[in-house]
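Shipment paperwork, digital attachment
Item: protein structure file
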Amino acid sequence: QIKAQRLLYFNMSESTKPHPQGKGEKTHVGDSSYVGIDAILEQMRRKAMKQGFEFNIMVVGQSGLGKSTLVNTLFKSKVSRKSVQPNPEERIPKTIEIKSISHDIEEKGVRMKLTVIDTPGFGDQINNENCWQPIMKFINDQYEVYLQEEININRKKRIPDSRVHCCIYFIPPTGHCLRPLDVEFMRRLSKVVNIVPVIAKADTLTLEERDYFKQTIREELRANGIDVYPQKEFDEDAEDRMINDKIREMIPFAVVGSDQEYQVNGKRILGRKTKWGTIEVENIAHCEFAYLRDLLIRTHMQNIKDITGSIHYETYRVRRLNESNIHFSAHLSDDPAVEPKANGQLEEQPSALQPNGVAAQHEALSHEM
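Attachment content:
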C-alpha cells in the first residue's frame, strides 16, 4: 500500500508536485530525506475543489439603502433578490419577510454556492418594536435544521449548510449617531451571528462627516457592549490580533455600491457618475468598499464560517441538548414505570420507555454531546 501511494505521488503532474520557492532551496528529486508530508496541502486543495464551498450572507437594513446593489457589487454578478424578480416594483411588506436566493458561482475553477438572504420590511414601519424577532427566528431555525441532521442515526456524508455565516447591517448615513433600532438589533443579533456594520451610501457624507460618524458609532458600540466581527476574543495569535485590530479601527465600513461601469482614464471601473465626477467604488480614496470586500471574501471568509460553526452554532447546540436533557429528566420523574433504587437513583423498567422511543432519543442526544 505504501509503494502504491508513493507511485501515485510520483506520477502526479508537475503542476501538482511541491516546487521549491526560493533559489537556495533544493528540489526533492533524489533527496533521500524527503518524506512528502507537505503534499497533504495539495490533497486538501484538490478535495476542496471537488466539493466546492458554501457561503450564506444576510443583508439587513431599511429600504432604499442599496442592499441589493452592494451585494451585486461584491460578487460582480446579479445575485441579489431584486435582480431576479421580473417586476422591479415591489410592495413594502406589512411585516418582516425573509427571502433567500442561491447561486452557483465559479471563478478559476473554484465553485461556490452563494446564498443571499434579504429581509424586506425591516425598519420600514411606524412601529418597529420587536422587528428583529423574525430575523432571529430564521437564524435559529437554520441552526435547528443543521442540528437535526447531525443527531440523525443515519447522517449524510456532508450536511447541507444553510446556517447564516455573516450579517451585513446597513446604517443610514445620518452623520449623527445610531438609532435605538440599530443599537437594539445589533445588541441582540451579535450573540447569534457575525455582524459587519456598514454605512450605506457613504458618498452622501463629506470626509469630515464620515470620520466623525464612524468614530461616534464605534463609541456607541463599545458603550452598549456590542461585539461585531471580528471579535477580539476569537483572535488566534498575535498576527491575527494585529490584522484584526486594523480592521476594527475601520468599522463601520463607509461603502458605496454600484453595478454600472464607466470609462475613467482608459479603464472600465464600477462607479457612480455625478456632475462633479465619477465616484469609483473600488478606489479606497473614495470609499471603503474594497476593505469590506477583502474582509468578506479574500481574507476572512473561512474564518467567518469557522466562528459560525465553532462559536454561534455550538452555543445553540449546547443549549438545545441541555433543554432536551431537562425535558427527558422531567419525563422520567413523572413516569410511574420508573422507580427509585435504594441509593436514590432512578431504575428504569424494561418495557417502560420503549414504545414511545424517548429513551432511544435521549441516548442519541447524549452520544452527540
